[in-house]
Amino acid sequence: MTISVWRYSHLALAVSSFLLLTLAAITGIILSFEPVAAEFQSYRVDGFDKITLNQTLPLLRQKYQGITEIKINPKGFVEIKGTDDQGGDLLSYVDPIHAKRLGVPQQQTEFFQWVTGLHRSLFLHETGRFFIGLTAFLLLLITVSGIILLIQRQRGIRRFFTKITRDSFAQYYHVMLSRWSLVPVFVIALSGTYLSMVRFELLNVKTESPKVDFDAIRTEPVRKDVDFEVFKGIHLSEVESVEFPFSEDAEDYYTLKLKTGELAVNQVTGDLLGETHYPAAVSLANLSLNLHTGRASGLWAFILAAASVNILFFIYSGFAITLKRRSNRTRNTHKAEESKFIILVGSENGSTYGFAAAIHRQLLRAGEKSFITELNNYTVFPKATHFIIVTATYGLGDPPANATKFMALLEKHPQQQQIHYSVLGLGSHAYPDFCKFAFSVNLLLSAQEWAKPLTDIHTVNDKSPEDFSLWAEAWSQQSGVQIAVSPELYASKKALQKLKVLGNSPQDVAAGDTFMLNLHPGRSKRVTSGDLLAIYPANDHRERLYSIAVINKQIQLHVKLHAEGLGSGYLQRLQPGQKISARIINNTHFHFPAEAAAVVMISNGTGIAPFLGMISQNSRQIPCHLYCGFREFASYSNYQPMLEESKSAQKVLNLNPAFSREGGRQYVNDLVERDATMIAEVLAASGVIMICGSLAMQKDVMETLEKICQLKSQQSVSHYESRGQILTDCY
User: Where are the beta strands (DSSP E) in 171-271?
Assistant: First the structure.
């Protein structure tokens, strides 16, 4: 095609779209100030990309007992949601390493909301979105035709950046700036076009939650969430949100929404219960949104603003431009070839780097030339005298991902001078192949003629600072360079109160069964059904939460005993007359409604506990309908006498138990679907639906309620949620 055809095409496209392009560029410049301003907020912590879920989830759950969800925004800000100690809403940005609050998320101002609406749809709803999408597509064609014109003008791709003959101001900057604007303008146009296609459902961006086989859920072996292999392999940078389990019941699980899919994780064993992968279109849609808005990077948002300014200039001069993004990489203070101390790290999820970095920093402070890198980057180090290998073990004694090539590289690149080496292995005695890869590395080094051990191999169990200190002391004595490691400091627990045990039954409960614990609430704090009790069974930082029922002015807990369960085992061993230290968390958003035409209570497992107290306290005889799910009738029989008595006293109208492993094998959601008409009538009469239990159950019930609402009242569930008619307390 001749240059004149491309020129006329380029001009025609520009002329046909310049009005909307001008509007889009101006609003784009304004909107870019939001992510640029956010760049100056210190809500993202250093090393965010190396933080894994097993490092931060236990810490956040310990520090914020009312936490229900964490979200990671595109800039790496960690946002937590839930309830605070006073029962109020908890919404804050936090430091995922130290659990310190950093700030409060702010809503978009009315001005930016107005500009956003104008930028997206011209306030013409779907018609406006169509024209904005068409404008993005035209900009894409303008960019492509501009590239071809530049190549033709410069007489080939190789001469693309050669000197430009300066004619007029407009012509010179028209060509010069356009050469540097190709990538950003192309990204703006392509991402805008893609987002419009997503908006009009031309691409499949539907996502599904994982299906969990509740009958196959295991309750052993019991593991700490810090040791979950699933959590160890997932960095915060991969996560969009994490929903916490409500109780310690194995049927209540973690729900992880990643950028590429969704996971369901057993909170007891750490097993992966279910997994779904999002269509590629979803990842591309998220990437397009990040690139188009700059929400993930203030630097990129600034580049978008500059590109938008240049688009306005090129509307005047005849072309669209942008700037080329550059990124800087952090480097070691000293080069590898000049360093005396080489620290080689093997880590699957990045946590091992914390120990290695501590050594590296102290060597630098001691005035030594130290270089830290991955084991896979091993090569010849001409000035090295000491190797420090800090490595974890992955799988069944396998090397971590960044150490898979080390053994081959070690044979390929022998050192030319004598090297003193020391191997430090990190792992957990909970696994049979404890530090196996570290021992393999140590054995291989011992076979090298140029390698001489400075210390025996040392291991660190469960990131123990004490174990690390033993190695540091031995290494310091042998090397003559002093390094030390301070033990980790744990945050002190909140103020606790003493609660007296009044009863604990049955005494001979077996693992998997439920027992009932009665406590005297004391006079220091008001408590009601729906609140939470926090206990510290090992008298350390580990906290366990239980839903409270208040019956006959006593706190009543209904707890499932887990084999080797820290919290449930501690509570089951309590004897009448003993006192425990605990604290009561006010959970006001899930208290029994003071005014309601009727109340529908839906639960599974031990989620029934607060409902038992609410029914007992229903002295006003507000019509209540209880739907509760259990595995077998034996579990329900523990509550049946009390519930039947409450029904006789008209504190509850209907009892609807479902048994998933007996009889017709029903789930509580099946009963909700069965009584769709009654539930719709409750909502229409300003009644309240309360849901307590696992998130899996909540999701199923909410989907059913959505169908009921759409069919019976032509409203959505969100309509009733916004009016406080649907309350949930699920984890």
Answer: 239-243, 253-258, 261-266
Write the CA distances from 463 to 47, 221, 233, integer angstroms. Answer: 18, 21, 16
Domain borders along the chain are 3-37+110-204+283-317, 336-479, 497-589, 592-730
pTM of the model: 0.38
Task: Write the pLDDT tens digit of every residue in 338-377.
Answer: 999 999 999 865 668 778 888 898 899 889 999 999 999 9
pLDDT bin (cut points 50, 70, 90) of residue 384 is very high
- Residue 27 half-sphere exposure toward CB, CA atoms < 13 A: 21
> Degrees (nearest 5) of the Cα angle 505, 509, 514?
75
The torsion angles phi and psi of 259, rounded to 5 degrees, stand at -70, -20
Local structure of residue 557 (DSSP, 8 states): E
Flag whether pLDDT at 391 surpasses 70. Answer: yes
Q: Does domain 336-479 have CATH number 3.40.50.2300?
A: no
Decide: 472 and 483 in contact? Cβ < 8 Å.
Answer: yes
d(CA 198, CA 546): 43
* Phi, psi for 283 (deg, rounded to 5): -60, -40
**Per CATH, domain 592-730 is 3.90.1150.10:** no
Scan for tokens 């950046």, then name that residue.
161
Which CATH code, of 3.40.50.720, 3.40.190.10, 2.40.30.10, 2.40.50.870, is assigned to 497-589? 2.40.30.10
- pLDDT for the residue numbered 355: 80
Residue 702 and residue 728: Cα distance in Å, rounded?
10
Give the DSSP letter of residue 402.
Answer: G
Kindly report the average pLDDT of the chain as a whole number: 81
> How confident is the model over 402-420, as pLDDT tens digits?
888 999 999 999 999 999 9
Task: Supply the DSSP symbol for 394.
Answer: B
Q: Which two tokens stand for residue 681?
A: 């009538």
**Would you mind telling me the total number of residues written for the chain in this entry?**
731
Segment 98-111, tens digit of pLDDT = 888 888 887 777 77
- What is the rounded CA–CA span in Å between residue 607 and residue 589? 16
